[in-house]
Amino acid sequence: MKTMVAVKHLTSPATIPRLPACLSVLSYNVLLPNSQDGWWNYKSYLPPLAPPDEYISTWEYRKSLLRERIGLIDADVVCLQEVSPLSFEEDFKFMTENLGYDGVELFRKGRFRPATFWKKDRVELISPAQHKDRTMLTTFRLVGSNDEANHDNWHVLNCHFQAGKNGGRRVRQCDEGVTAAYKLAKKLKEKNPEDLKLIVCGDFNGGNESGAVEYLEKGIVDQDFIEDGEQVSSKAKKIPLSAPLIDAICIDREDNNPVPPTLVVPELISMMIDQGSIETAYIEPQFSQQVIQRLSRIYNRFAKESPGMQMTKADVERWLTIINGRVGRGSEFRNAAKYMGWKEPPTDPEEKKEDRPPIVIPDGSILTFTDFVAVYLDELRQGKFWGIAWDLAKLDEPLDVKKVFEARYDRMYCSASIQPTAVLDTISTEPCPNKLEPSDHLPVCASFQVRK
Questions:
Q1: Contact present, 386 and 268 (Cβ < 8 Å)
Q2: How far apart are CA 57 and CA 438, in angstroms?
Q3: 400-447 pLDDT tens trace
Q4: Residue 254 contacts by C-beta under 8 Å, 6 or more apart in sequence?
């Protein structure tokens, strides 16, 4: 699709151009853990970081990369995903203190939250933020000039759609967010609410095969649309606007400048899952033979000194210490304890979680090889391919990872009443996160003006 104004395409590191009567928006999934929630971030780095490089996975180092990149881009509005409420103010105070983003709204609930920042000398929040299902709507007016466009309302929907085999929920989340913007435009008595100025951005947790993408780009998703083998809606859902939204990052692309992926990670699924079940990986995935063989060798190394060649409590504790740093944390520990006989005692509904008895590995118990594999199957079914691959490598049984998985999960759309003037690409040819990239996602950024 061609626009009336040529779109300027830039590549990071760069600053998004500031033009009169334009709004620039940056969207960035910054990768939980932040400083407090989550100890496991080092498992996102493959191969495992050597001791001299372990600092790369720390929040302080990653935060410095985020501060530098966000500051250089200098967008008017910044939409983040995967921030932790436990440490949000401390983790992101640099946004205000160093970068001048003195407006902020944090999503009200959940562990992985969106947060939207803005610069008050550039935009004014004109209505309280609306918090929906993993989407957050903020509405602004431009400040700083007398241009007629400064009287327009600009709606920004910050999204972090549900991951996994949840295509139907992603469609509902998208529809709910867009509908909320339309209803707000009516409430604010905009002249043509169906032609509102709307930007939808964030982590869609899906690509072109996603029902949420279909909904935005086609303006409708019906009961015949199938995602991950399932119907995403029992009836047609139609966008409440005069036209479908426009994929801002795709506009005016030359053949030698394709849209870059925003998710660049090691390709693990084809190596890890039995080929017979690739298409049903979400349902009951089973390990490939090369993973089973590696797990068998690992198990035998830990159990070789124990009676009956089975992993004892001491063996299990050695294994957990290597992969998780200590005994007592991680889903591997919790599931191993259950397979070894630990049973959760009856709980009082009024009892606080922190007052419950701790999970322990029973004395004298064993972890069979079948249950050892089952622990990792539980990880697999939670989508923790990266964690399994890291454990295998740390335990001297690395997968021979040679391919990179690339996808465009992070997106930015605009309604037909506005058009992009500039788009900023961030490109990585190496799996993320890495020394230069603080997240497994790459940011997307664009500047917009009202379509004349």
A1: yes
A2: 8
A3: 999 999 999 999 999 999 999 999 999 999 999 999 999 999 999 999
A4: none
Nearest CA to 373 out of 335, 401, 399 is that of 335
Distance CA 241, CA 108 (A): 27
Residue 290 tokens read as 């090369």
- The Cα 301–Cα 111 span in angstroms is 37
Please answer whether residues 24 and 76 qualify as being in contact, where contact means their C-beta atoms are separated by less than 8 angstroms. yes
Closest CA to 300 of 319, 287, 317: 319
Is-contact 427 442, C-beta < 8 A? Answer: yes
What mean pLDDT, rounded, does the chain reach? 93
Distances, alpha carbon 228 to alpha carbons 183, 210, 281, 385, in Å: 31, 9, 10, 18
Q: Is the pLDDT of residue 395 over 80?
A: yes
**For the chain, what is the HEC assignment?**
CCCCCCCEEEECCCCCCCCCCEEEEEEEECCCCCCCCCCHHHHHCCCCCCHHHHHHHCHHHHHHHHHHHHHHHCCCEEEEEEECCCCHHHHCHHHHHCCCCCEEEECCCCCCEEEEEECCCCEEEEEEEEECCCEEEEEEEECCCCCHHHHCCEEEEEEECCCCCCHHHHHHHHHHHHHHHHHHHHHCCCCCHHHCEEEEEEECCCCCCCHHHHHHHHCEECCCCEECCEECCCCCEECCCCCCCEEHHHCCCCCCCCCCCCEEEECCHHHHECHHHHHHCCCCCCECHHHHHHHHHHHHHHHCCCHHHCEEHHHHHHHHHHHHCCCCCCHHHHHHHHHCCCCCCCCCCCCCHHHCCCCCCCCCCEECHHHHHHHHHHHHHCCCHHHHHHHHHHCCCCCCCCCEEEECCEEEEECCCEEEEEEEECCCCCCCCCCCCCCCECCEEEEEEECC
- What tens digit of pLDDT does each residue of 69-116 get? 999 999 999 999 999 999 999 999 999 999 999 999 999 998 889 999
Q: Are strands 311-312 and 226-227 parallel, antiparallel or unpaired?
A: unpaired
Structure tokens at 211: 């029902």
Confidence of residue 279 (pLDDT cuts 50, 70, 90): low
Contacts of residue 111, Cβ cutoff 8 Å, sequence gap at least 6: 32, 37, 84, 85
pTM: 0.92
Dihedral of the CA atoms 416, 420, 421, 425 (nearest 10)? Answer: -170
Token pair 């660049």 is at which residue? Answer: 264
CA atoms of 84 and 88, how far apart (whole Å): 6
Q: What is the pLDDT of residue 36?
A: 85
